[in-house]
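Shift notes (night). Ran Transglutaminase family protein while the centrifuge was going.
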Amino acid sequence: MTVKISVRLLFELSEPTDTMLQFEAAAIPEQQIISTQTVMGAALHCARVAAQDSIGERLMLRIEGKQAIDYDAVVRVDRKLPDISSLKAMRPHELPGEAIQYLLDSRYCLADKFRSFVDSEFEGLQGGAQIAAMRDWIQDYFVYTPGSSNGDTTALDTFIERRGVCRDYAHVMVTLARAAGIPARYCSVYAPGVEPPDFHAVAEVFLADPDGPGGTWQLVDATGMADAAETVKIGVGRDAADVSFMTTFGMADLTYKDVQVSTL
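Came back to this:
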């Protein structure tokens, strides 16, 4: 599937400020960058650095004043999409080292607090079948409500409120998976069909590879809005703190954001 992406960001900084941006589609085996262009104003400093797990890049900038960024890309997605409910779990001692960190609690995903719930609600299920049941449970019991959460909202807050946006759905999905002993990470993506159009967030879980030894990361969208065959990865992390599209080490005002994603 070929996906077209167009992003425009406008923001203002009253003084020179270090700013980290992550909004470009990642160049990884499962998605081919056909064309890409990023246009921005002058910066006091600009460098590209590898993002978490070497998936995508971050722009490290020192900028001031009014700034505009335009990003356009065409990406061809070609990833393996097995029936997730058929995939087996891997025991912790079988996991590769890079997956271990995604079993642990993080800022927004306190899995330890959910172990008893997972054991009772999803009793008798394992691996991908358990993941599919968790995804369906979130879809059934949560209401997608723009404006209902903020940058401090955790998976536990969302679980109690039973409402949120894609960020919150992904945090709950990641948390439930980790509580079941399945590595899970937060994934920032572009996807057609997201309403309202914006950056999107999904979970990604590590399960046994059906085609051979080892494991494989599989996308899971608890909102039900993104089709994995059309989803373009930007970056991954323990939770949203690792893959925000914009992190400033000082004061900044985001004055405009427009994200358009479509298939070709």
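The chain has two domains: 2-77+244-263, 84-242. Residues 190 and 232 are 5 Å apart (CA to CA).
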